[in-house]
Amino acid sequence: MDVVILGEAEELIHTFLDAAASSDRDELLSRLSCLSGCFVPGRTPGLPPIAKAGDEKLPARSQIITRNTVLSSMFLIEPERGCSRGCTYCVMRRTTNGGMRLVPPESILALVPAHARRVGLVGAAVTDHPRIAEVVRGVVESGREVGISSLRADRLDEELVELLCRGGYRTLTTAADGTSQRVRDTVRRGTRERHLIRAAELVRKYGMERLKLYEMIGLPGETGEDVAELVRFSLELARIAPLSLAISPFVAKRNTPLDRAAFEPVASLEKKLAGLRAGVKDKVEIRPVSARWAWVEYRLSQGGEAEGLAALAAWRAGGSFGAWKKALAGNR
Ligand code: SF4
User: Fold this and answer.
1) Banded model confidence at residue 245, pLDDT cuts 50, 70, 90
2) 63 and 11 share a domain?
3) Is the pLDDT of residue 332 over 80?
4) 83 close to ligand 1 (CB < 6 Angstrom)
5) Between residues 244 and 24, which one has the greater pLDDT?
6) Does residue 118's CB lie within 6 angstroms of at least one atom of ligand 1?
């Protein structure tokens, strides 16, 4: 890459495009390397602060609605940007660009085009919007389908889940993000068992198909006992409603308190996953992210320019895991 733009692009993208149109390459890269939010490999010293757009630019929203997108024919809009919480593994935590910025429900609803039949509410912590029920009600009562990118278990209540059902939800998806209460407390994830039990009860009460939970394994300090707690608690939840666990190995991210935390060895992660599968048998659906590919993600997340060149070499060698392993082996 010649230049990486970090953070919110609403303003910086114009600066970038204007500069790109009017400069020769060398001059362009020199100019960009000095801008907040621009990283030019070999020229910007260290990581620059990430770009922040002015509040008047919010909310970001779709300009084109088409079937030819992953979220087919869905109008996307941000009722909020950022998050006011402090989970220590998360790049969107409150220290990022001043935390949560809210948009009033009236402004959101007024921006939904008349022809939009599906509305996606996007943001790091959408259900933390203090007036989220008003937004969802406005969408649903206009006869549209609704989608929300992030449901916090401690914000789910009867009113919101009932609205989500009316808006087309069949699976209630939320995150626990730690195998045990001890681990969740360590990473300041406020979710407690009672919140997740409540979510499962709401799934059952409103006749939804299943509860899907995002989980991480391999957070710092996690032991076999924490995984055993996940087995015990998953079985408890599965007795209330059908349950899927989407499990990702923990990958430390830059600009977070857990930056530089180690990646648990692949063999150890696979052993924990096998123990989890054996413990829940066929009573809980387990959908894991490959520990090997998470290791590649870890190396890229924590790496620098050498890892970027290794990525190029891995791609040239066919992109298999073996190619990545070989390419990254030289950069330890
Ligand atoms: S994990 Fe979710 S709740 Fe926690 S800081 Fe990140 S966005 Fe906020």
Assistant:
1) very high
2) no
3) no
4) yes
5) 244
6) no
178 and 256 part of one domain: yes
97 sits in the region (left: phi over 0; alpha: psi -120 to 50; else beta) called left
- The torsion angles phi and psi of 148, rounded to 5 degrees, stand at -130, 135
Query: Could you give the 3-state DSSP secondary structure of residue 186?
Result: helix
Percent of the chain exceeding pLDDT 90 equals 85
Percent of the chain with pLDDT over 70: 99
Same domain as 136, residue 230? no
Q: Which of 78, 81, 83 to mutate to test the pocket of ligand 1 (most atoms within 8 A of CB)?
A: 83
Answer whether 90 contacts ligand 1 (Cβ < 6 A).
yes
Residues 6 or more apart whose Cβ sits within 8 Å of residue 49: 7, 36, 37
User: Which residues constitute the domain of residue 127?
Assistant: 58-150
Domain count, the chain: 3
Q: CA 200, CA 276: separation in Å to the nearest integer?
A: 20
pLDDT digits (tens, 9 = 90+) for 18-65: 888 877 889 899 989 988 899 998 899 888 888 999 999 999 999 999
**Is 171 a residue whose pLDDT tops 90?**
yes
Handedness of CA 247, 208, 148, 195 (dihedral sign): negative
**In angstroms, what is the span from residue 214 Cα to ligand 1's centroid?**
12
Write the CATH number for 127.
3.30.750
Calculate the average pLDDT of the chain.
95
CB-based burial of residue 114 (10 Å sphere; 0-12 exposed, 13-18 middle, 19+ buried)?
exposed
Q: Is the CB of 100 under 6 A from ligand 1?
A: no
Is residue 124 lining ligand 1, measured as CB closer than 6 Å? Answer: yes
Asked whether residue 117 falls in the same domain as residue 71, the answer is yes
